[in-house]
Amino acid sequence: MRIAMVGAGYVGLVSGACFAEFGTDVCIVDTDASKIEALRGGRIPIYEPGLDKLVEENARDGRLTFTTDLEEAVRGADAVFLAVGTPTRRGDGHADLTYVYAAAEQVAKAASNPLVLVTKSTVPVGTGQQVLEIVRKARPGLAITVASNPEFLREGSAIGDFMRPDRVVIGVEEGEAGERSLAVLKRLYRPLNLIEVPILATRIETAELIKYAANAFLAVKITFINEIADLCEKVGADVHDVARGMGLDGRIGRKFLHAGPGYGGSCFPKDTLALARTAQDQGAPVKLVETTIAVNDARKAQMAERVIAACGGSVAGKTIAVFGLTFKPETDDMRDAPSLVVVPRLVEAGATVRAFDPQGTAMARPMLPGAVHYARSALDAAEGADALVLLTEWNEFRALAPKRLRAAMRGDVLLDLRNVYDPEAMRAAGFRYQSIGRP
Ligand code: UDX
């Protein structure tokens, strides 16, 4: 089997490298020549645990190649995956499909043989049909079929998620065209049969909606526990135990019930917004999701106010250490991270911010106010600080000795917005410790 992956972004790189690991010949194509040049030289433009090794090994064995030449990539391919970006369109919150449609047309024009054109990027319901029309128009004579195969990768554990997914969702056309697409995709995912991964074959529209519905549901789940955490604080309950007690009910499940400063990342904020817009346009609004979006946005702003309140109502002239800037650990991704709301607000309120992130500094720098200082280590950030705010739960923050941390600081305020520390231990070390939803 031979496939092309259009787009060397997060999804394209991880999926491409993993398909190569499955034994398929994969050619990743991107218009960004410097990116392709870097990849050919073994340099990975993103931080994702294990990806560098996977790319290196498969490139060395000749199964994984990189090019800027779409025609070369598509020639002889059994399937071409579209993994180009679908950012939020300015103004209306819809997903911007310019790249998807342009890539679909280019692939159709470049195709030398019948192939399956698979959309992997997260696209609104109805995009598959549009892609089909574009392809039919561009190459009426060639048997190109269209499919939807959404990805459910989490940043930081993307390779494990690809190799051992909970399910594979494949949306295909009706009839014989659909059968052909399905046969090709099932062959590509064959290694997953060994570990009995369910393959859900369905209509294209359904596959497209599954992705949005799953992400929106998870966003609702997180937002629900965040609100319950706020209530816990008022009534003296412990959100940790509430989440555990709820999650042990198999119908609810334990995952994604970790209270925090609000969800961020490249998917949840963008996908919830796109789903809400599509649903409004279709006259079937998803009010629960609309509310989730508003509650989550407000939460990030509230977190900054919480820091200010913990510092006695003002942070002017104070030094605040910030642990973690990325939207979650094990990534350098800053997209929609709570830090993008919290840090500027603290700077604006007159604080000096000393931040440390194990991987995110380079990405954070252009996105945060110029006045932010970037420390070389967690302890360096804490040095002389009046207050410490933990925003992202990197493991190395858990490992810090509380007494040493306290000794490095001038003040004693510790705001743990991810509940990583033990309240008793932190109080014993002399901190005025606050977390989310715990007494
Ligand atoms: C998510 C989905 O999990 C994945 O299936 C989809 O393909 C892409 O979007 P990702 O954005 O990488 O993946 O991160 P995820 O681990 O899901 O976390 C998203 C956000 O929710 C983060 O900001 C995280 O801190 C937050 N979160 C997650 C919580 O606040 N509490 C939780 O219990 C879980």
From TrEMBL:
Catalytic activity entry: UDP-alpha-D-glucose + 2 NAD(+) + H2O = UDP-alpha-D-glucuronate + 2 NADH + 3 H(+)
Annotated positions binding NAD(+): D30, K35, T86, T122, E155, K270, R335
Major enzyme class: oxidoreductase
Active site: C267
Superkingdom classification of source: Bacteria
One Pfam family hit: UDPG_MGDP_dh_C
Keyword annotations of the record: NAD, Oxidoreductase
Residues holding substrate: F152, L153, R154, E155, K211, F256, L257, H258, A259, G260, G264, K328
EC code: 1.1.1.22
SMART domains to which the protein is assigned, alphabetical: UDPG_MGDP_dh_C
Record's protein name: UDP-glucose 6-dehydrogenase
